[in-house]
Amino acid sequence: MTIINPERSEIKEILSNSKRIAVVGLSNNPERTSYMVSEAMQNAGYEIIPVNPVIDEALGVKAVSSLKDIEGTVDIVNVFRKSEFLPEIAKEAVEIGANVFWAQQGVANDNAYNYLKEHEIKVIMDRCIKVEHALTK
Predict the structure, then answer these.
(1) pTM of the model
(2) Ranges of the chain whose pLDDT falls below 50
(3) Which CATH superfamily is domain 8-135 in?
(4) C-alpha dist (Å) from residue 55 to 24, 35, 59, 134
(5) R_g (Cα) of the chain, nearest Å
């Protein structure tokens, strides 16, 4: 199956209605793309939740080890991990009831996509959330 991302108008709606973004694989290194993208989204008014078991915090926010460790709802799960990790992360996203699963540019997985669609979660893959946010303003 081919991955089909929502139209830009729907992506704009997703970004307009979302407040909390759990960033899986967020680095605490300001030189890393995950940090720069997440910082831009934080500066745009989104609450960023770092999900990374090997760091204590990023962007001034305490990190959690997994999506299951997050209290409250998650609007978007934004993933900065290799494509082969997406099925496992997709299962956690379903377990926590996330609204949207977003895999960053260069990251996609058909199995994860199909699983998420079966569970009626909106899926965006191989797109940068920071770029989409800028394009939909």
Answers:
(1) 0.97
(2) none
(3) NAD(P)-binding Rossmann-like Domain (3.40.50.720)
(4) 12, 12, 11, 28
(5) 13
